[in-house]
Amino acid sequence: MDIAKTKRAARLRRHRRVRRRVAGTVERPRLAVFRSNRQIYAQLIDDRSGRTLAAAGSLPGKGDGDKKTVARRVGAELASKATAAGISSVVFDRGGYQYHGRVRALAEAAREGGLDF
Q1: pTM of whole model > 0.85?
Q2: Which long-range contacts (CB under 8 A, 24 or more apart) does 40-46 make?
Q3: Nearest to 80 by CA among 92, 69, 72, 91
Q4: Is residue 25 within 8 Å of 46, Cβ to Cβ?
Q5: In the 8-state DSSP scheme, what is residue 21?
Q6: Could you say which DSSP state residue 50 is in?
Q7: Chain Cα centroid distance, residue 5
Q8: What is the per-residue pLDDT across 53-78, written as a single tens digit (0 to 9) for each?
Q9: 91-107 pLDDT, tens per residue?
């Protein structure tokens, strides 16, 4: 077992542990979250074919407000793209991050936008 020497290594170890059980399909894609210090990104992934079905991020001019507000905006945008693509049910992959703060805000906004997970 590898001992995490950095925060990033610890997060990747947690992510690998989650990914053993979580996989997306066309009917129920994986909602993967990536959070950097300034930005947050989310995408719906079909793991069987390795394709991204929908994606949203905070980078292109959506950085107005605090980080949680931006995360909510990204979650709502992803939910609207998903419903436009005919996706209503997803599997949530928090990416090794705590379900807290920005990750939670994104997830709750996606749920309010119509995604079921």
Answers
A1: yes
A2: 40/67, 40/70, 40/71, 40/74, 40/102, 40/103, 40/106, 41/74, 42/74, 42/75, 42/78, 42/106, 42/110, 43/78, 44/78, 44/82, 44/85, 44/87, 44/90
A3: 72
A4: yes
A5: T
A6: T
A7: 25
A8: 999 999 876 657 899 999 999 999 99
A9: 999 999 999 999 999 99
User: What's the pLDDT score for residue 3?
Assistant: 67
Average pLDDT in the chain: 90
Which tokens belong to 67?
Answer: 């980080």
Phi, psi of 38 (to 5 degrees): -110, -25
Q: What SS3 state is found at 59? A: coil
Nearest to 33 by CA among 20, 49, 48, 19: 19
Distance CA 48, CA 25 (A): 6
Q: Which amino acid is at 23?
A: A
